[in-house]
Amino acid sequence: MIAKVSRTAVFFHAHPDDEALLTAGTMAMLAAEGHRVVLVVATAGERGLADLPHGDRLGETRMNELYRSAAGLGASRVVHLGYADSGLAAGGAAPDDRPPNAFIDADVEQAARRLADVLDEERADLVTIYDPAGGYGHPDHVQVHRVGRRAAELAGTPIVLEATVNRDPLLRALRLAGRFYRFPPDFDLRAFEKAYSPGSAITHRVNVRRYAKAKRASMAAHASQTTGGDGDRTLALMLRLPRPLYRLVFGTEWYVRRDLPPGTRLRHPFDAFPG
């Protein structure tokens, strides 16, 4: 009988709650399989929208939410790299009034070295980042791609997966939903036309329906991000979906692995392990 190999996966995100939206199901699955799961965030998300009376303590609140989310997913460790949330201005750019330690302004080599230290310490077999577009284009997400890819090079991490969404069915679903539902003010359908990745680029389609309950609990842990600005936000809308529909919509998580040929269709993050 061949013993199962336990590996280590590091999930690198820009802000608390990003893990819930893109990789929570995969994290819960790997932890359940006995792999070590480590969650790293660049910032505490202290410039995110929130109606609750957090004041200057929003970052602390969001980190506490992150710890609850990570615990529910089975993560063994949470790391904050210590950068400031760059914020988001109209049109998707970084605002001019961002703090001096904003992640978007960090030297890529220095930031990558910080992450590489974690990868080295953990002897990571895999690290997730974002696609070059940073998903929906948040400046901190684009920086995660740059920093994460360089960190993997420095640490020699064998697998780099770009957490993303299959843009093709997403656009179809959003256009259909727009006929019947008025989206929240923070939702811009046009932004999704160049967001994330086309289906032809995706190499991993990970079925996480068995872990939908854990993914939903991860989203719910980020209560501060369900309201803000003019009312309920997209996260709140996702949590209102009936459970069967939630499992259908969020039952797959997508990744792109650039060292594999186009047309590759894998089901597990550690499939096609190098060597």
TrEMBL record:
GO BP field: glycoside metabolic process
UniProt keyword list: Zinc
GO MF annotation: an example: hydrolase activity, acting on carbon-nitrogen (but not peptide) bonds, in linear amides
Key word Aminoacyl-tRNA synthetase present: no
InterPro entries: GlcNAc_PI_deacetylase-related, LmbE-like_dom_sf
Pfam families noted in UniProt: PIG-L
PANTHER family: 1D-MYO-INOSITOL 2-ACETAMIDO-2-DEOXY-ALPHA-D-GLUCOPYRANOSIDE DEACETYLASE, N-ACETYLGLUCOSAMINYL-PHOSPHATIDYLINOSITOL DE-N-ACETYLASE-RELATED
Protein name (database record): LmbE family N-acetylglucosaminyl deacetylase
